[in-house]
Design brief:
By secondary structure, the chain is of the alpha+beta class. It contains one helix and six strands; from the N terminus they run H-E-E-E-E-E-E.
């Protein structure tokens, strides 16, 4: 009786197509992973270093059916001017008020209360963001 070989002798004919494809996938994954990490690092650097003005919504109070008061703490470089955008929503999620507030004071840290006029009864207030001028 003769023995039947089902595969090629190992190492005799070089790498198989599967091994070459696996190597290409590993290289492509490493390149894409490196690019992704570099992009996340750039976004992080831009957010932390280049962000000249930032704010935090401390609290809000629904004063009436047509007004919401928002307490903001604003941190910025001394002398930097900017704009912060506030928004208020109804119970259904519809936007009922929006206000852009100017931040022109020279101080580096501000604690202020702003009033947003609304078109219907609001249930919350949000800080959408701040940008430097």
């Amino acid at each position: 009786m003769s023995a039947v070989r089902e595969s090629l002798p190992e190492g005799r004919y070089g790498r198989s197509a599967d091994e070459r494809a696996d190597r290409k996938l590993k290289v492509a994954g490493a390149v894409l992973g490196t690019l992704f990490l570099a992009l996340m690092g750039w976004f992080g650097w831009y957010y932390v270093v280049d962000n000249k003005i930032s704010a935090e919504l401390i609290k809000f109070e629904v004063v009436s059916d047509t007004e919401v008061q928002v307490h903001l703490e604003i941190r910025k470089d001394a002398g930097t001017k900017g704009v912060c955008t506030l928004r208020s929503r109804s119970a259904e999620g519809a936007e009922v008020g929006r206000k852009d507030v100017s931040v022109d004071e020279p101080a580096a840290r501000l604690d202020k209360v702003y009033s947003i006029r609304t078109t219907a009864k609001a249930t919350n207030a949000e800080l959408l963001g701040c940008t430097a001028k």
